[in-house]
Design a protein that fits this description.
Layout lengths: L3 H6 L1 H29 L7 E2 L7 E5 L7 H10 L5 E2 L18 E5 L4 H22 L2
Antiparallel strand pairs: 1-2, 2-4, 3-4
Helix pairs in contact: 2-4
């Protein structure tokens, strides 16, 4: 009922295009920049799957020495909630495809400082995992 006038007038489209999308695009860009800075140049390989309009990032750590579920548990213990990527592959056979266990879904919809703090903790934990896995 609250949005009906905006839908009827078509104003919802311009609000989405001119206000909402730029707002979340800027938040996404800030989040990626913070994570890039936190990971530094000499850490493990990592990628951000192309953000396509949602309010979260998919972080991919190829060759992650632990599962994304174990990484989730470690991050939760440090007060950072993410979603393990393995939940997003229902119905696919467990055929050794490691990618499903190397990704995290991370929201950036909270305040910028809180998001930055969480991303720095994620980077710290990922680097710690790699440091303990290296001979």
């Amino acid at each position: 009922m609250l949005a009906e006038p905006l839908v009827r007038s078509g104003e919802i489209l311009s609000l989405s295009r001119d206000v909402v999308c730029p707002f979340y695009k800027a938040k996404m860009e800030r989040a990626v920049a913070v994570f890039r800075d936190a990971m530094g140049e000499d850490s493990c390989r990592w990628y951000v799957h192309k953000p396509e309009g949602a309010m979260f990032l998919w972080l991919w750590f190829p060759g992650l020495p632990i599962s994304s579920l174990e990484l989730y548990q470690r991050l939760k213990a440090r007060g950072v909630l993410v979603v393990s990527g393995h939940y997003f592959f229902p119905g696919l056979p467990e055929d050794g495809w490691k990618h499903r266990h190397e990704c995290l879904r991370v929201t950036y919809s909270q305040g910028d400082e809180r998001v930055a703090e969480g991303l720095r903790i994620i980077a710290d934990e990922v680097k710690a995992v790699w440091a303990t896995a290296s001979p």
